[in-house]
Amino acid sequence: MTDSPKKSPIIVAQDLACGYDGVPIMEHLNFSIDPGEIFFVIGGSGCGKSTLLRHLIGLQPAIAGDVQIFGQSFTKASVEERRGLLKHFGVLYQGSALWSSLTLAENIMLPLEEYTDLSKKERQDVACLKLSQVGLTGYADYYPSEISGGMKKRAGLARALSLDPAIVFFDEPSAGLDPITSRELDELIQKVSRDQGTTCVIVSHELASIFSIGDRVILLEKQARTIIAEGPPKDLAQHSTDPRVLEFLHRGDIAPT
Fold it and tell me: E-strand spans in 61-148?
C-alpha cells in the first residue's frame, strides 16, 4: 500500500513582516496551512495575533514578505485577482460584526449580493440553509438585538459560510462567551471543518478551544516578535523545552491530555 500524496498547502506565509505605517510588530513569519486543517494562531495579549490575521485576509498590507493563497501571491495580486481570491474566504469577526438594522437572513445575503448573480429568492434560500447549518433554523427574520451573544456568533458564522468558502478566518471566536456556549461553538467549527473540508484559521488565546479542536498552532511571542513554536498543541505542551511555550500552554487550570 502506498501513502496518498500530500496535498499542497492552502496558505503559505514566506518571511512575512506585519505591522502598521511601516513599523513591524512581527517579522520573519514562515508557516503553511494545509487544506481542511483547524489551525490556531496563539499567543499572549498584544503579540500581534489579530494583526497577522488582518494581513492574511488583506485588510493590512504586508511590510515585507508574501502570503500565498492556493499557490498564488495574495500580497502581490492585482485588484481583480484579489477579488477572485476573496470569494473563497469567510471571516467571523470578534464581535460578529452583524448589521443591526438587518435581519439575520439579510446579513447572510450581503456577500451573495456582492459576489453572485443569484436571484433574491435564491439568496433567501441560501440564507435559510446556512442558518440551519449553524442551528438557527427559524431565526431568519430576527434582528441581532433579539438574540443572545452565542447566537450572534452562530449567525456570524452562517454569514462567513454563505459563499461556501474554502477558508474561514476567526478572530477570537470565544470572546465574551460562557464556557458552555464556547464549547458548543468549538463543536460547530469542528463540524464545519469535518463535513465540508473547510480550512479554519483561528486567532485565540483560549486554551480549552486550542486543545479541544486545534490540529496545529503557531505561537507568537511579543518580545521575540516572531513565531517561537509550531506544531500540534498537545505535543508542544507535553514535549517543548522552551519555558515561554510551557508557561503559555500550562497556565490556568487547563491541562492537555
Answer: 64-69, 72-73, 89-92
- pTM score, two decimals? 0.91
Burial annotation 132-154 (CB, 10 A radius, 16+ → b, else e): ebbebeebbebbbeebeebbbbb
Q: Which of 10, 4, 41 is nearest to 204 (CA)?
A: 41
Question: What digits encode the pLDDT tens for the residues 183-201?
Answer: 999 999 999 999 889 999 9
What does DSSP say about strands 89-92 and 38-42: parallel, antiparallel, or unpaired?
Answer: unpaired
36 grid coordinates: 481542511
The Cβ-side half-sphere exposure at 61, using a 13 Å CA radius, reads 8
How far is 110 from 155, CA to CA, in rounded Å? 13
Q: Compute how many other C-beta atoms are within 10 angstroms of the C-beta atom of residue 122.
A: 13
Outline where DSSP puts E strands in 118-222.
Answer: 167-171, 199-203, 216-221
Q: State which H helix or E strand residue 227 sits in.
A: strand 226-231
